[in-house]
Design brief:
This is DNA repair exonuclease. 31% of the residues lie in helices and 24% in strands. It has 10 helices and 15 strands. The chain has helices at residues 26-50, 69-84, 187-191, 270-288, 305-309, 311-325, 347-350, 356-367, 371-380, 396-415, and strands at residues 4-9, 54-58, 89-92, 112-114, 121-127, 130-137, 161-167, 197-201, 207-211, 214-217, 233-239, 245-251, 255-263, 291-301, 332-342. A 6-stranded mixed beta sheet has the order 4-3-2-1-11-12. Strand 5 and strand 6 (130-137) form a beta hairpin. Helix 1 packs parallel to helix 2 (69-84), helix 8 (356-367) packs antiparallel against helix 10 (396-415) and helix 9 crosses helix 10 (396-415). The N and C termini lie far apart (76 Å). The relative contact order is 0.10. Residues 417-421 have low confidence and may be disordered.
Protein backbone atom coordinates (compact mmCIF):
# COMPACT_ATOMS: atom_id res chain seq x y z
CA UNK A 1 0.00 0.00 0.00
CA UNK A 2 1.16 3.52 -0.75
CA UNK A 3 1.95 5.53 2.43
CA UNK A 4 -0.28 8.56 2.90
CA UNK A 5 -1.22 11.27 5.39
CA UNK A 6 -4.50 12.75 6.52
CA UNK A 7 -5.70 15.29 9.06
CA UNK A 8 -8.30 14.28 11.62
CA UNK A 9 -10.25 17.14 13.19
CA UNK A 10 -13.74 17.74 14.51
CA UNK A 11 -16.02 19.74 16.78
CA UNK A 12 -15.16 23.01 15.05
CA UNK A 13 -18.21 24.81 16.46
CA UNK A 14 -17.58 27.67 14.04
CA UNK A 15 -18.91 30.98 15.30
CA UNK A 16 -19.66 29.65 18.80
CA UNK A 17 -20.13 32.71 21.05
CA UNK A 18 -17.88 33.46 24.02
CA UNK A 19 -20.55 35.65 25.66
CA UNK A 20 -18.77 35.73 29.03
CA UNK A 21 -15.64 37.24 27.44
CA UNK A 22 -17.27 40.15 25.60
CA UNK A 23 -17.00 43.84 26.38
CA UNK A 24 -13.62 43.84 28.13
CA UNK A 25 -11.75 45.48 25.26
CA UNK A 26 -11.91 45.78 21.49
CA UNK A 27 -8.93 43.46 21.04
CA UNK A 28 -10.57 40.76 23.17
CA UNK A 29 -13.89 41.18 21.35
CA UNK A 30 -12.15 40.73 17.99
CA UNK A 31 -10.13 37.76 19.18
CA UNK A 32 -13.06 35.83 20.67
CA UNK A 33 -15.29 36.59 17.67
CA UNK A 34 -12.72 35.10 15.30
CA UNK A 35 -11.20 32.38 17.52
CA UNK A 36 -13.07 29.36 16.14
CA UNK A 37 -12.66 30.56 12.55
CA UNK A 38 -8.95 31.24 13.01
CA UNK A 39 -8.36 27.81 14.56
CA UNK A 40 -10.07 26.14 11.61
CA UNK A 41 -8.09 28.29 9.16
CA UNK A 42 -4.93 27.00 10.86
CA UNK A 43 -6.05 23.46 10.00
CA UNK A 44 -6.79 24.39 6.38
CA UNK A 45 -3.41 26.12 6.00
CA UNK A 46 -1.68 23.07 7.51
CA UNK A 47 -3.43 20.74 5.08
CA UNK A 48 -2.48 22.84 2.06
CA UNK A 49 1.08 23.45 3.23
CA UNK A 50 1.73 19.78 3.99
CA UNK A 51 -0.16 18.55 0.91
CA UNK A 52 -2.02 15.90 2.86
CA UNK A 53 -4.02 13.24 1.05
CA UNK A 54 -7.27 13.93 2.91
CA UNK A 55 -8.98 15.94 5.63
CA UNK A 56 -11.41 14.06 7.88
CA UNK A 57 -13.96 16.08 9.90
CA UNK A 58 -15.85 14.18 12.58
CA UNK A 59 -18.88 16.44 13.04
CA UNK A 60 -20.17 19.60 14.73
CA UNK A 61 -18.98 22.09 12.14
CA UNK A 62 -21.19 24.76 13.71
CA UNK A 63 -23.97 25.13 16.31
CA UNK A 64 -27.35 24.45 14.74
CA UNK A 65 -29.31 26.30 17.42
CA UNK A 66 -27.88 29.54 16.01
CA UNK A 67 -28.49 28.49 12.39
CA UNK A 68 -25.27 30.39 11.86
CA UNK A 69 -25.23 31.15 8.15
CA UNK A 70 -21.91 32.99 8.41
CA UNK A 71 -20.32 29.83 9.78
CA UNK A 72 -21.71 27.80 6.89
CA UNK A 73 -20.46 30.34 4.33
CA UNK A 74 -16.99 30.40 5.86
CA UNK A 75 -16.89 26.62 5.99
CA UNK A 76 -17.78 26.26 2.32
CA UNK A 77 -15.11 28.81 1.40
CA UNK A 78 -12.55 26.70 3.29
CA UNK A 79 -13.71 23.64 1.37
CA UNK A 80 -13.00 25.46 -1.89
CA UNK A 81 -9.47 26.19 -0.67
CA UNK A 82 -8.96 22.45 -0.23
CA UNK A 83 -10.59 21.82 -3.61
CA UNK A 84 -8.04 24.13 -5.25
CA UNK A 85 -5.28 22.13 -3.53
CA UNK A 86 -6.82 18.82 -4.75
CA UNK A 87 -7.42 17.61 -1.17
CA UNK A 88 -10.54 15.47 -0.60
CA UNK A 89 -12.66 15.98 2.52
CA UNK A 90 -14.70 13.32 4.32
CA UNK A 91 -17.16 14.62 6.90
CA UNK A 92 -20.04 13.51 9.09
CA UNK A 93 -22.57 15.82 10.67
CA UNK A 94 -22.83 15.79 14.45
CA UNK A 95 -25.50 16.41 17.07
CA UNK A 96 -24.89 20.18 16.92
CA UNK A 97 -25.08 20.37 13.12
CA UNK A 98 -27.32 17.44 12.15
CA UNK A 99 -28.32 16.91 8.55
CA UNK A 100 -31.63 18.72 9.06
CA UNK A 101 -29.89 21.92 10.22
CA UNK A 102 -27.93 22.79 7.07
CA UNK A 103 -30.44 25.35 5.84
CA UNK A 104 -28.22 27.60 3.78
CA UNK A 105 -28.28 25.24 0.82
CA UNK A 106 -24.75 26.24 -0.15
CA UNK A 107 -23.18 24.03 -2.80
CA UNK A 108 -20.08 22.16 -1.66
CA UNK A 109 -17.26 21.57 -4.13
CA UNK A 110 -17.00 18.01 -5.42
CA UNK A 111 -13.98 17.21 -3.24
CA UNK A 112 -16.27 17.17 -0.18
CA UNK A 113 -17.91 13.87 0.74
CA UNK A 114 -20.75 14.22 3.27
CA UNK A 115 -22.00 10.95 4.74
CA UNK A 116 -25.67 10.01 4.71
CA UNK A 117 -27.70 10.19 7.92
CA UNK A 118 -29.75 7.07 7.11
CA UNK A 119 -27.09 4.34 6.87
CA UNK A 120 -23.35 3.83 6.97
CA UNK A 121 -21.90 4.88 3.63
CA UNK A 122 -18.54 4.12 2.00
CA UNK A 123 -16.43 6.40 -0.16
CA UNK A 124 -13.25 5.20 -1.92
CA UNK A 125 -10.02 6.29 -0.22
CA UNK A 126 -7.81 7.52 -3.05
CA UNK A 127 -4.05 8.08 -2.88
CA UNK A 128 -2.38 9.34 -6.07
CA UNK A 129 -5.43 8.23 -8.06
CA UNK A 130 -5.22 4.69 -6.67
CA UNK A 131 -7.90 3.28 -4.38
CA UNK A 132 -6.20 2.01 -1.23
CA UNK A 133 -9.31 1.41 0.84
CA UNK A 134 -12.52 3.00 2.02
CA UNK A 135 -13.79 5.78 4.26
CA UNK A 136 -16.96 4.87 6.15
CA UNK A 137 -19.38 7.08 8.02
CA UNK A 138 -22.90 8.02 9.05
CA UNK A 139 -24.14 11.48 9.99
CA UNK A 140 -26.45 12.47 12.83
CA UNK A 141 -29.85 13.26 11.39
CA UNK A 142 -31.75 14.93 14.21
CA UNK A 143 -29.43 15.99 17.03
CA UNK A 144 -28.75 13.67 19.97
CA UNK A 145 -29.14 10.21 18.45
CA UNK A 146 -29.58 7.16 20.69
CA UNK A 147 -28.70 4.69 17.92
CA UNK A 148 -25.55 2.62 18.29
CA UNK A 149 -23.85 3.78 15.09
CA UNK A 150 -20.64 1.80 15.67
CA UNK A 151 -22.39 -1.56 15.37
CA UNK A 152 -23.38 -0.66 11.79
CA UNK A 153 -19.80 -0.23 10.50
CA UNK A 154 -18.17 -3.12 8.62
CA UNK A 155 -15.07 -2.79 6.46
CA UNK A 156 -14.87 -4.36 3.03
CA UNK A 157 -12.46 -7.29 2.96
CA UNK A 158 -10.69 -5.88 -0.08
CA UNK A 159 -9.70 -2.66 1.75
CA UNK A 160 -5.99 -2.23 2.36
CA UNK A 161 -6.92 0.52 4.83
CA UNK A 162 -10.33 1.22 6.34
CA UNK A 163 -11.09 4.58 7.95
CA UNK A 164 -14.25 5.11 10.01
CA UNK A 165 -15.64 8.59 10.73
CA UNK A 166 -18.18 8.86 13.54
CA UNK A 167 -19.69 11.44 15.88
CA UNK A 168 -20.64 9.75 19.12
CA UNK A 169 -20.06 8.79 22.74
CA UNK A 170 -17.74 5.83 23.28
CA UNK A 171 -17.19 3.80 26.42
CA UNK A 172 -15.88 5.77 29.40
CA UNK A 173 -17.00 8.99 27.72
CA UNK A 174 -20.61 7.92 28.43
CA UNK A 175 -20.24 9.41 31.89
CA UNK A 176 -19.06 12.82 30.71
CA UNK A 177 -21.14 15.58 32.33
CA UNK A 178 -20.14 18.17 29.74
CA UNK A 179 -21.48 16.38 26.69
CA UNK A 180 -24.89 15.07 25.75
CA UNK A 181 -24.85 11.39 24.93
CA UNK A 182 -25.22 10.72 21.23
CA UNK A 183 -24.64 7.52 19.26
CA UNK A 184 -23.67 5.62 22.44
CA UNK A 185 -21.44 2.57 21.99
CA UNK A 186 -18.55 0.69 23.56
CA UNK A 187 -15.10 -0.26 22.35
CA UNK A 188 -16.35 -3.82 21.85
CA UNK A 189 -18.81 -2.50 19.22
CA UNK A 190 -15.99 -0.65 17.51
CA UNK A 191 -13.71 -3.69 17.41
CA UNK A 192 -16.28 -5.65 15.40
CA UNK A 193 -16.13 -3.19 12.52
CA UNK A 194 -12.67 -4.37 11.34
CA UNK A 195 -11.54 -0.77 10.74
CA UNK A 196 -7.94 0.42 10.93
CA UNK A 197 -8.64 3.94 12.21
CA UNK A 198 -11.68 5.45 13.92
CA UNK A 199 -11.86 9.24 13.56
CA UNK A 200 -14.20 10.21 16.38
CA UNK A 201 -15.91 13.46 17.24
CA UNK A 202 -18.16 14.78 20.04
CA UNK A 203 -15.81 14.70 23.06
CA UNK A 204 -13.77 17.92 23.18
CA UNK A 205 -10.65 16.38 24.69
CA UNK A 206 -8.02 14.87 22.38
CA UNK A 207 -7.44 11.24 23.41
CA UNK A 208 -6.51 7.84 22.04
CA UNK A 209 -8.93 5.18 23.27
CA UNK A 210 -7.22 2.27 21.52
CA UNK A 211 -4.10 1.69 19.43
CA UNK A 212 -5.20 -1.53 17.75
CA UNK A 213 -7.26 -0.45 15.99
CA UNK A 214 -6.59 3.26 16.39
CA UNK A 215 -9.65 4.81 18.06
CA UNK A 216 -9.10 8.55 18.40
CA UNK A 217 -10.93 11.66 19.54
CA UNK A 218 -9.27 14.72 18.00
CA UNK A 219 -10.94 17.04 20.51
CA UNK A 220 -11.80 20.54 19.36
CA UNK A 221 -9.40 22.94 17.60
CA UNK A 222 -10.39 25.83 19.88
CA UNK A 223 -11.49 25.63 23.51
CA UNK A 224 -14.87 27.26 24.11
CA UNK A 225 -14.87 27.83 27.88
CA UNK A 226 -12.78 27.50 31.04
CA UNK A 227 -13.38 23.73 31.36
CA UNK A 228 -11.73 23.25 27.96
CA UNK A 229 -8.21 24.20 28.98
CA UNK A 230 -5.02 22.55 27.74
CA UNK A 231 -3.80 21.98 24.18
CA UNK A 232 -6.44 22.13 21.44
CA UNK A 233 -5.88 21.15 17.83
CA UNK A 234 -5.98 18.29 15.35
CA UNK A 235 -4.09 15.10 14.52
CA UNK A 236 -1.78 14.62 11.59
CA UNK A 237 -1.98 10.89 10.87
CA UNK A 238 0.80 9.22 8.89
CA UNK A 239 -0.12 5.80 7.52
CA UNK A 240 2.82 3.56 6.58
CA UNK A 241 2.87 1.02 3.74
CA UNK A 242 1.89 -1.72 6.23
CA UNK A 243 -1.07 0.28 7.58
CA UNK A 244 0.66 1.35 10.80
CA UNK A 245 -0.58 4.78 11.97
CA UNK A 246 1.66 7.40 13.55
CA UNK A 247 -0.12 10.31 15.22
CA UNK A 248 1.16 13.85 15.69
CA UNK A 249 -0.98 16.30 17.65
CA UNK A 250 -0.77 19.84 16.28
CA UNK A 251 -2.06 22.81 18.26
CA UNK A 252 -4.35 25.17 16.39
CA UNK A 253 -6.10 27.30 19.03
CA UNK A 254 -5.82 31.08 18.97
CA UNK A 255 -7.00 31.57 22.55
CA UNK A 256 -6.27 29.33 25.51
CA UNK A 257 -7.96 29.09 28.91
CA UNK A 258 -6.19 29.02 32.26
CA UNK A 259 -7.21 28.93 35.89
CA UNK A 260 -4.90 30.49 38.46
CA UNK A 261 -5.07 30.43 42.26
CA UNK A 262 -4.14 33.39 44.46
CA UNK A 263 -3.52 32.24 48.04
CA UNK A 264 -4.16 35.07 50.52
CA UNK A 265 -2.16 33.38 53.29
CA UNK A 266 0.47 35.85 54.45
CA UNK A 267 -0.95 38.72 52.38
CA UNK A 268 -1.94 41.73 54.47
CA UNK A 269 -2.62 44.50 51.95
CA UNK A 270 -4.56 45.01 48.75
CA UNK A 271 -1.42 46.10 46.88
CA UNK A 272 0.32 42.82 47.77
CA UNK A 273 -2.61 40.84 46.39
CA UNK A 274 -2.71 42.81 43.13
CA UNK A 275 1.07 42.44 42.75
CA UNK A 276 0.71 38.66 43.13
CA UNK A 277 -1.96 38.68 40.41
CA UNK A 278 0.31 40.71 38.13
CA UNK A 279 3.17 38.24 38.65
CA UNK A 280 0.90 35.29 37.85
CA UNK A 281 -0.15 36.99 34.61
CA UNK A 282 3.45 37.60 33.62
CA UNK A 283 4.24 33.93 34.21
CA UNK A 284 1.37 32.93 31.90
CA UNK A 285 2.55 35.39 29.25
CA UNK A 286 6.00 33.80 29.18
CA UNK A 287 4.59 30.26 29.13
CA UNK A 288 2.00 30.65 26.36
CA UNK A 289 2.89 33.69 24.25
CA UNK A 290 -0.75 33.42 23.15
CA UNK A 291 -3.98 35.25 23.96
CA UNK A 292 -5.27 33.76 27.20
CA UNK A 293 -8.54 34.07 29.10
CA UNK A 294 -7.95 33.60 32.82
CA UNK A 295 -10.23 32.49 35.63
CA UNK A 296 -8.87 33.76 38.96
CA UNK A 297 -9.65 31.79 42.13
CA UNK A 298 -8.95 33.53 45.45
CA UNK A 299 -8.14 30.86 48.05
CA UNK A 300 -6.67 30.44 51.51
CA UNK A 301 -7.13 32.03 54.92
CA UNK A 302 -5.97 35.44 56.05
CA UNK A 303 -6.80 39.04 56.88
CA UNK A 304 -7.70 39.81 53.25
CA UNK A 305 -10.72 37.53 53.52
CA UNK A 306 -13.32 40.28 53.93
CA UNK A 307 -12.17 42.20 50.89
CA UNK A 308 -12.04 39.00 48.82
CA UNK A 309 -15.54 38.04 49.92
CA UNK A 310 -16.99 41.37 48.77
CA UNK A 311 -18.32 41.08 45.21
CA UNK A 312 -18.01 44.80 44.50
CA UNK A 313 -14.34 44.76 45.49
CA UNK A 314 -13.66 41.73 43.30
CA UNK A 315 -15.33 43.48 40.36
CA UNK A 316 -13.10 46.51 40.97
CA UNK A 317 -9.97 44.36 40.95
CA UNK A 318 -11.15 42.62 37.81
CA UNK A 319 -11.78 45.89 35.95
CA UNK A 320 -8.37 47.23 36.93
CA UNK A 321 -6.43 44.14 35.84
CA UNK A 322 -8.41 44.05 32.59
CA UNK A 323 -7.51 47.68 31.90
CA UNK A 324 -3.81 46.76 32.20
CA UNK A 325 -4.20 44.35 29.27
CA UNK A 326 -5.97 46.64 26.80
CA UNK A 327 -2.76 48.00 25.31
CA UNK A 328 -0.96 44.64 25.10
CA UNK A 329 -0.44 42.97 21.70
CA UNK A 330 -1.03 39.59 23.35
CA UNK A 331 -3.50 39.69 26.21
CA UNK A 332 -3.61 37.67 29.42
CA UNK A 333 -7.15 38.68 30.33
CA UNK A 334 -8.85 37.74 33.60
CA UNK A 335 -12.57 37.47 32.88
CA UNK A 336 -13.85 36.10 36.20
CA UNK A 337 -12.73 36.20 39.81
CA UNK A 338 -14.21 33.82 42.36
CA UNK A 339 -13.83 33.83 46.11
CA UNK A 340 -12.93 30.58 47.84
CA UNK A 341 -11.13 32.18 50.78
CA UNK A 342 -12.04 31.57 54.41
CA UNK A 343 -11.69 33.66 57.55
CA UNK A 344 -9.27 32.48 60.19
CA UNK A 345 -11.85 30.50 62.14
CA UNK A 346 -11.49 27.10 63.77
CA UNK A 347 -14.89 25.65 62.87
CA UNK A 348 -14.37 22.52 64.96
CA UNK A 349 -13.83 24.64 68.11
CA UNK A 350 -16.71 27.00 67.28
CA UNK A 351 -19.08 24.03 67.01
CA UNK A 352 -18.45 23.26 70.69
CA UNK A 353 -19.21 26.75 72.02
CA UNK A 354 -22.60 27.68 73.47
CA UNK A 355 -23.09 30.83 71.41
CA UNK A 356 -25.00 31.81 68.29
CA UNK A 357 -22.18 30.63 66.01
CA UNK A 358 -22.08 27.24 67.72
CA UNK A 359 -25.87 26.97 67.54
CA UNK A 360 -25.80 27.83 63.83
CA UNK A 361 -23.10 25.25 63.03
CA UNK A 362 -24.89 22.51 64.96
CA UNK A 363 -28.16 23.33 63.18
CA UNK A 364 -26.27 23.30 59.90
CA UNK A 365 -24.88 19.82 60.68
CA UNK A 366 -28.36 18.53 61.53
CA UNK A 367 -29.92 19.88 58.33
CA UNK A 368 -27.22 19.89 55.66
CA UNK A 369 -26.13 16.26 55.87
CA UNK A 370 -25.29 15.55 52.22
CA UNK A 371 -25.97 16.66 48.65
CA UNK A 372 -29.16 14.60 48.37
CA UNK A 373 -30.55 16.19 51.53
CA UNK A 374 -29.87 19.69 50.19
CA UNK A 375 -31.45 18.83 46.87
CA UNK A 376 -34.57 17.54 48.65
CA UNK A 377 -34.78 20.73 50.72
CA UNK A 378 -34.73 22.79 47.54
CA UNK A 379 -37.28 20.62 45.75
CA UNK A 380 -39.67 20.79 48.73
CA UNK A 381 -39.61 24.59 48.76
CA UNK A 382 -42.60 26.12 46.91
CA UNK A 383 -40.22 28.57 45.20
CA UNK A 384 -38.56 25.67 43.36
CA UNK A 385 -41.43 25.60 40.86
CA UNK A 386 -40.23 28.94 39.51
CA UNK A 387 -36.92 27.37 38.54
CA UNK A 388 -38.53 25.02 36.04
CA UNK A 389 -35.88 23.35 33.87
CA UNK A 390 -33.11 25.22 35.68
CA UNK A 391 -33.41 22.69 38.51
CA UNK A 392 -31.58 20.25 36.23
CA UNK A 393 -28.55 22.57 36.25
CA UNK A 394 -28.08 22.07 40.00
CA UNK A 395 -25.40 19.40 39.71
CA UNK A 396 -23.81 17.73 42.74
CA UNK A 397 -20.75 19.93 42.26
CA UNK A 398 -22.86 23.12 42.31
CA UNK A 399 -24.70 22.01 45.44
CA UNK A 400 -21.44 21.14 47.22
CA UNK A 401 -20.18 24.65 46.57
CA UNK A 402 -23.46 26.09 47.88
CA UNK A 403 -23.13 23.98 51.05
CA UNK A 404 -19.56 25.12 51.69
CA UNK A 405 -20.45 28.75 51.08
CA UNK A 406 -23.58 28.72 53.27
CA UNK A 407 -21.63 27.28 56.20
CA UNK A 408 -19.02 30.02 56.03
CA UNK A 409 -21.39 32.87 55.17
CA UNK A 410 -23.54 32.16 58.23
CA UNK A 411 -20.54 32.00 60.54
CA UNK A 412 -19.11 35.24 59.14
CA UNK A 413 -22.35 37.19 59.56
CA UNK A 414 -22.90 35.96 63.12
CA UNK A 415 -19.31 36.60 64.18
CA UNK A 416 -19.39 40.21 63.08
CA UNK A 417 -16.71 42.23 61.35
CA UNK A 418 -14.00 42.01 64.01
CA UNK A 419 -14.37 38.51 65.46
CA UNK A 420 -11.71 36.27 63.83
CA UNK A 421 -10.82 33.90 66.64
Amino acid sequence: MQPFRFIHCGDLHLGAPFQYARGMSRSVDRAVAEATYDAFNNIIELAVRERVNAVVISGDIYNSEDHNLEAQVRFVRAMYQLWEAHIPVYMVQGNHDPAESWRAGLAMPDNVHVFSDTQVQRFPLMVNNIEVGGVYGISCGHGNEQTNFASQYKAFERDEFSLAVMHGTVGASLGSEDHNITGPCNLSDIMQGAMDYWALGHIHKAQVLSEDPMVVYAGNPQGLHRKESGPKGCYMVRVAHNGHCELEFIETSEICFEEIKLDIAGIRTESELLELLSNKKQSLRKRHNKNTLVSVNLIGTGPMYRLCADEAVRKLWLRETQADEKSKSTFIMPYRMTNKTRPAVNLAERRLLSDMVGDYLRAYDDTVTDVDAVRQILVNRPESKRLGGYLDLLSDDVLKRVMERSEMEGVTVLMGANDEH
